[in-house]
Amino acid sequence: MSILYRALWQAPTDQAIETASEEFGVWVGSKHSEIEVPDVGEAEGEGVSVEVRRGDDDAGSIARWILREERDASRWVTTLTCICARDGGEPWFWVDVDNVSHDYLESVTVSAPRLVRSLINRLGRSHRGNQALVGSPVQLRPDDLQEFLTELEDPDRELPVVVFAYDSKVGLDMSNDRADKAAQILAGLCRVYVLGSLGNEEFRRQVGPQLAVWAGAARVYLPGVDPANPSPYRHKYFLARTFGHSSRKQGLLIADYLDRLLTRQRPPPEYFRLRPLIDTADFSSFEELWTEFEEVTAERDRLKEQEFASAAERDDLEERIDQFQLEAHRFWAAARQTGAEADLVALLTESAEVVDDVRFSLPATCEEAIDLARRELRRIAIPDDALRDLEVIDQSLESRSWVRGIWKGLVALDEYAAVAPDFNGDFWIWCETSGDEWAWPATDKKLSMTESKDVQSNKRLREMRVLPVAKAVDPAGKTLMYAHLKIAQGGGNNIPRVYFHDDTKGETGKVHIGLLGPHYLVKNRSG
Description:
The chain is of the alpha+beta class. Among the domains are: 1-128, TATA-Binding Protein; 359-521, no CATH class. It is 36% helix and 21% strand. The chain is built from 15 helices and 20 strands. It has helices at 16-31, 114-123, 145-153, 171-185, 200-207, 249-262, 269-274, 286-338, 344-350, 366-376, 390-394, 399-419, 427-433, 453-457, 459-463; strands spanning 2-10, 41-45, 48-57, 60-71, 74-85, 92-101, 127-128, 131-132, 138-140, 161-164, 191-195, 218-221, 237-238, 380-381, 447-448, 466-468, 478-480, 484-486, 496-503, 510-518. The strands form five sheets. Strands 1-6-5-4-3-2 form a six-stranded antiparallel β-sheet. A hairpin with a 2-residue loop joins β3 and β4 (60-71). α1 runs antiparallel to α2 (114-123), α4 (171-185) packs parallel to α6 and α10 (366-376) packs parallel to α12 (399-419). The longest helix has 53 residues, at 286-338. It is globular, with a radius of gyration of 27 Å. The two termini are 20 Å apart.
């Protein structure tokens, strides 16, 4: 099983188990009216089952409700656990969503179950530490900013804070609707705020430019905000153009990002004292096993945090590199135009020609990069069938650097195609020898013009590389493609690959993209 969602919170109530039982029953009934949730035990229906466990002793009470649903080739399991210790602490509510599937390479969209929102709304005063949790976005007005900053900078804050800026391009209603849908999707994971039409500038002034959010974007503020050391790369920024006109996409992208962090949350200590009441496992060596588990988990968390920080810092550095590259290009273009140092400053500030060079564009999503390429890069062809599982790339932690890499690769192919008819060599040789500033790195880690003998001799792997192409190239509308750009190394099966066919010396005079998608679509070995 893979945990896709986890929420943990507390609420001041002496009817915790009763409330949880009622809300779970209502929720299951709304999904599967034929199932009646038992007080204890199991109930089954077609493709669905419910299990309820309860336990009570001098240390406290614990109850667990489990819904298992079979959907096509996958199984979804939603688990609600209520933990009530008798030491005077408030009850804990814990919801997990797990999934296992035969189609494990297919992307999965996850949002908070309605059960979570129902519980949070009914309980009232739900919280995680000092942080209140609600099922709807909180309007952030200028008068509320000081209280917000106190929450944001609280060193004891345990959950993220998400802020949505007002988007003048879609208006107030759509801006609020995005935030409302996101708050539903993110229920239990964070606290969601939305800025009004007059709040963006004041918010920027209060939090500082490095941590601000504006123009319809959203920002996720992880715990540990330090005004003296903002570290903006730690607090992921989602551009408004990433969301288009969808009111749900914003929340789903943020949920995908947060779920990879928050599914690592540990249950409260009270759970491990009460767990034997509902679990029949042998706990004779529990303390010994738990100590070992904590050590392994701590090391995993350290490595994950290191990976996250490195990826975020790399994004920040790549953005700076892009800006430096733009400035360098402007400098030399201005120098070539003037030939005189005296005119240089004026041209640097007044020349719009270089600034408008589409090749320096910084697309935020795969869709944006593709639209830009189809509109501006005339010597490459990208059929719709070549675009597969792009949301997997867009929702990855490294999406910003990956999308920019895809764009740079498409630009390189277009620049090559412009000179290819008169060039004596293929794309690799052009990249290696031309000295063109837009050339793609001609290294084994970034480019391959063929595949290994293992791939070429394996029918199944070879067929994965029979990809769509214009019928002017092949009347069948498909052809075998081995050449591909390696956008990134490492990162697992989701790293992007761009497969292409070179017809620059053929009838079309273009480079044809046969596949743009995650690496798992073109495996390298059997399995």
